[in-house]
Amino acid sequence: MSIIKVRNLSKIFGKRVKEATSLLDKGASKEEILKKTGCTVGVNRATFEVQQGEVFVIMGLSGSGKSTLVRLLNRLIEPTNGDVEVGGENLAKVGKEQLRKVRREKLSMVFQKFGLFPFRTVLENTEFGLEIQGVKKEERSKKAKEALELVGLGSFIHQYPDQLSGGMQQRVGLARALANDPEVLLMDEAFSALDPLIRKDMQDELLDLQEKMKKTIIFITHDLDEALRIGDRIALMKDGSIVQIGTPEEILVNPANDYVERFVEDVDRSKVLTASHIMKRPETVDIEKHGPRVALERMREQGLSSIYVVDRTRQLKGYVTADDVSEARKKEQKDLHNIIRTDMPVAQPDTSIHEIFEIIHNAPVPVAVVDDGKLKGIIVRGAVIAALANGNGVTETHA
Amino acid sequence: MLDFLPELPVAEWIDNFVDWTKSAFSFAFDPIKNEFGDFIEGTAELLSEVPPSIIIIIVALLAFFISGKKVGLPIFSIIGLLFILNQDIWEELMFTFTLILFASVISVVIGIPLGILMSKSRWAQIIITPILDFMQTMPAFVYLIPAVVFFGIGMVPGVFASVVFATPPVVRFTNLGIRQVSSELVEAADAFGTTGSQKLFKVELPMAKKTIMAGVNQTVMLSLSMVVIASMIGAPGLGDLVLSALQRSQGGQGFVAGLGIVILAIIIDRMTQNLNKGK
């Protein structure tokens, strides 16, 4: 069921809005309209629907109109044209009183720079939405504490925002939005001000929370990685228009136009799984210490038909097969020098799965992942196939 | 060169306007002059009756707590006030203080709402800004004239002139403080569905508090300076001492009274500034 329906939603900034609107309807471009009327097209006839419980990501570069679009949804910016239906009610047409009611009960917003009130404690910040609605002190404090508990800030309720780190401040922002128990969360570049590691954590946490809460989330971002990570569906914006809407997979596999394709290409390279993701710890024997007896014993223990040979500094020397080793043992040879083979497949830690898939195909032994001559790990055929089969959408485009 | 133009009778117009205002609004001016005048004078006399030692102790304690339990300001207050007591100008100090108190309170009560109005309405801003400029650049003495016409001589016209002179800063600072609240916080307030007054009282005024308090400080200091000038229309107090010393060319006496004003100014200024630092 779609909870939000947006139809032909436009925002034009400037004085000659009427002229600009008619030009827009005739299909004039953003530049043409700017040149002819001096008006800036913020959002150009956006149309989309958001399903209940969905994480809908609106992504685009800065200036693409995504922040304007999200503000049109709760009318922080007045739309020039078009409809915004939230739960069957056309917000673009309702009066002030009704708009306030919807903002209080249905839509909550999380801001890029957190938007916390510095003179209020964490708890008081979280209570804000409920306080505005006139909820009694005890009840709102209880709800706010639950929300803070949910984001893992239960023990910081009496701190002030400036005593917390950026990530924690944004958790407060999230808790404040959740305390209202809204139907829709609007998140405007909510994690963009955080450093990359914290951002990843917050993304994970949001996904965990979403698992429990099943809210409808509209998430604005300029970061395609982030969009792919958290979005059920993604809308790509350029120059105020939505260029493509689809699941991460659809966007990656069938980019609607050059613009999307360029985006996707960039991401592709960085998102590809590499050898280091799927390699495992290798069983080895040390050529300087171990002879056929130890090698055979290790292979028997692990159920292997071959084993890699390294020296004391873990430099890869080659591998030996079980057959050769038992032969050598019969001949009562003391070391492995004579039977080492070196025709093993080798990969670097950053070799893509795609390439590994090709070299592993006919290899007699697992692929050795080597960095600077040192054996870092091995990749067995099963791991590659597993990664290709249940990896994310990105790797599927390679398969 | 432009002799053919007759001189515009501006002065006459203003006189006529003032006369008209006086008669038209005498129903308002007279009670202000009488009732309010009695009230101010009563307050000043009451303060003069209180034993100075008690006032000195109260001021020192206030200074101690307001300045965050530091001893500098309390010590200065005690020494300064003892000096004033020693110079036998205590009663004048009480009168001056009363004038400042009334003038500042009235200025703030008028000024903050005006500032809020200015911050909310572009039109209010366009109309009020030049009026404030006018109020601040017109020589302060000029306000004394209509003050006398409306309220005679004494404390009431002194307070009136001070209010006219001292209100602009608090209006400007309130306007500025509210306009400076970051747009994201205003958006946050809107996004959660605040009404206009909820936004004002729960977000904008708390955020603007420091700026507004800086304006209040300015207003208090300006009313202090005006209260001294108001001695020319019979406002009693330290300014009156300065004026009579000037008329009789008594340099020493004038200096002592001036020193009293400086001491009062420093105490009031530091106290209002510290109020602003707060937590």
TrEMBL record, chain A:
GO CC terms, sorted: plasma membrane
Keyword Chloroplast applies: no
Enzyme Commission code(s) on record: 7.6.2.9
Enzyme class, broadest EC rank: translocase
Domain of life: Bacteria
Domain called CBS: residue spans: 278-336, 340-394
GO MF annotations, alphabetized: ABC-type quaternary ammonium compound transporting activity; ATP binding; ATP hydrolysis activity
Location within or outside the cell: Cell inner membrane
Keyword field: Amino-acid transport, ATP-binding, CBS domain, Cell inner membrane, Cell membrane, Membrane, Nucleotide-binding, Transport
Catalytic activity: a quaternary ammonium(out) + ATP + H2O = a quaternary ammonium(in) + ADP + phosphate + H(+)
Assembly behavior: The complex is probably composed of two ATP-binding proteins, two transmembrane proteins and a solute-binding protein.
Similarity comment text for this entry: Belongs to the ABC transporter superfamily.
Name the record gives this protein: Quaternary amine transport ATP-binding protein
Organism: Gracilibacillus ureilyticus
TrEMBL record, chain B:
Pfam family, one: BPD_transp_1
Record-level Gene Ontology MF annotations: amine transmembrane transporter activity; carnitine transmembrane transporter activity
Keyword annotations of the record: Amino-acid transport, Cell membrane, Membrane, Transmembrane, Transmembrane helix, Transport
Segments passing through the bilayer: 50-66, 96-119, 140-166, 220-243, 255-272
GO biological process: amino acid transport; choline transport; glycine betaine transport
Membrane topology, from the record: Multi-pass membrane protein
Compartment(s) of residence: Cell membrane
SUPFAM superfamilies: MetI-like
Record-annotated ABC transmembrane type-1 domain positions: 93-272
GO CC annotations on file: ATP-binding cassette (ABC) transporter complex
InterPro entries the record matches: MetI-like (IPR000515), MetI-like_sf (IPR035906)
Protein family membership: Belongs to the binding-protein-dependent transport system permease family. CysTW subfamily.
The protein's name in its UniProt record: Glycine betaine/proline transport system substrate-binding protein
Organism listed in the record: Gracilibacillus ureilyticus
